[in-house]
Amino acid sequence: MTSRILASALSAFLFPALALGGLSLASPEVRAEVKSAACKVTAFLASKDGDGSIPEDLKFLEEQLRDDQFAAFKGFRLLEAKTLKLGLDKAAVAALQSSFTLRLSLLGEEESKLKLHANLMAAGRDKPLVDTAYKIDNNGVLLVGGTRHLDGKVFFAIHCRGEG
Amino acid sequence: MTRLAKVTEEQLSAYFDGELDPGERAQVEQWLARDAAGRATLAELGVMRDAITVSLDAEAAKVPAARFEQIWDEIDRALDRETAAHLPAAPVPSLWARMLGVLRPAWVPVAAVAGVAAIAIVFVSGGAVTPTNSPELAASNPTPTSPVVAPAPALVPEVEAVFPLPEMYEAEIERIEFGGKNGRIGTIEGKRGTTTVIWVSDEDAAPGQRSL
After folding, report:
1. Quick one: A14 and A83 in the same domain?
2. From the list B69, B174, B183, which residue is nearest A134 (CB)?
3. Mutate: best of B62, B159, B199, partner A, most A CBs <10 A
4. pTM, two decimal places
């Protein structure tokens, strides 16, 4: 009799608790939908002249800049870095000193990825250089660029992370 | 190749590579004229060299010329580092010399500010500042109330928000337009993951190439 009471008590209290605990542990991906995002836009110049070294402030892209696709460039220089705060469907604009304007919007979250819209304009042009909608994992980086600027080509690293 | 009694393998290899002096070369050529096996060995060396050359050329053709330049740059930098490591280290300046070096550009303003601060302290404390050169005298004096000086606004340079090191994830491009220019989407595979690169060309696009 005692064992039955104990068993029912255990099943009444412990099982739901364990189930809830298990659920919370087993689904770390479940989180509030992203409502905003913080983004950092790093503009850098890649040129044919240089010693091939990667400056400290671009070290986070070292692996990419050493790739064969960037083999034509031997000099890399940070132009500027800007941080942007994006709200849902509220565009933030980074007016860069390099006469480029990058408009970023957070479109939402899909399959646990950030859904973003990027529009890159160059001064004196009525059409964007690039206008794209893309999805990327949180804290991921998209590289955009390759158009002529100063003595090389300008690139933008768009790095965003979602905030609940 | 032990049958090469008069001309050794080393001599034959050197002849093949064009490394013999004229006298030795003539000697090997005479020997080759008489010895068919020697000529066959020489022909084998030629076949082997051609096969290796073709294979290496094919491998090299896969690497862009610019990458070679990058590799040479890396070698140059490695050599520079190696050279620098063997240079005698410069003597370390003394602490005072370093402090003087740091303060030199701001010496006059620092002295002026210190002077003004000293005068201000004298006035704020009502002129009741007694020179307290000896510890005994200082201890006997009532502890003067420290003047409350409002902290100056910190001249901290604007610091950008701290961002964690980004992860390299491939982006899924759902829609893209290049606004009348050419462009392409590429990826870079690395140890840290895959990075998507949107390449914008300066060339104008042909009709039908402007969007995805």
Report:
1. no
2. B174
3. B199
4. 0.52
Look up residue A156 and give its two tokens: 């933008």
B99 CB-side CA count, 13 A = 3
Cα B180–chain centre separation? 37
DSSP-derived 3-state class of residue B150: coil
> With contact defined as beta carbons under 8 Å apart, do A141 and B168 qualify?
yes
Task: Looking at the structure, tell me whether residues A68 and A123 fall in a common domain.
Answer: yes
Determine the residue of chain A that is closest to B167 in CA distance: A140
Asked if A66 and A90 sit in the same domain, the reply is yes
Contact A143, A120 (CB under 8 A): no
Q: Specify whether the CB–CB gap between A23 and A17 falls below 8 A.
A: no
Does residue A15 sit in the same domain as residue A77? Answer: no
Same domain, A79 and A101: yes
Asked if B69 is an interface residue toward chain A (Cβ–Cβ < 8 A), one would say yes
B195-209 core/surface letters (b: 16 or more CB in 10 A; e: else): bbbbbbeeeeeeeee
Least Cα distance to A129 among A115, A147, A117 occurs for A147
Domain count, chain A: 2
Write out the residue range of the structural domain in which residue A15 sits: 1-30
ipTM: 0.79
**Residue A20 pLDDT grade (very low, low, confident, very high; cuts 50, 70, 90):** very low
Measure A101 CA to nearest chain B CA, in Å: 14
The verdict on A149 and A80 lying in the same domain is yes
Verify that A65 and A102 share a domain, yes or no. yes
Q: Which of A127, A131, A142 shows the shortest C-beta gap to B196?
A: A142
* Closest residue to B195, CB basis, from A72, A127, A143: A143
Rounded mean pLDDT, A118-129: 91
Question: Which tens digit of pLDDT belongs to each residue from B50-109?
Answer: 888 888 888 777 766 666 667 777 787 778 777 777 666 555 555 555 655 555 555 555
Domain spans of chain B, in order of start: 1-87, 168-206
Distance between CA atoms of residues B88 and B85, nearest Å: 8
Contact between chains at B190 and A60 (C-beta distance less than 8 A): no
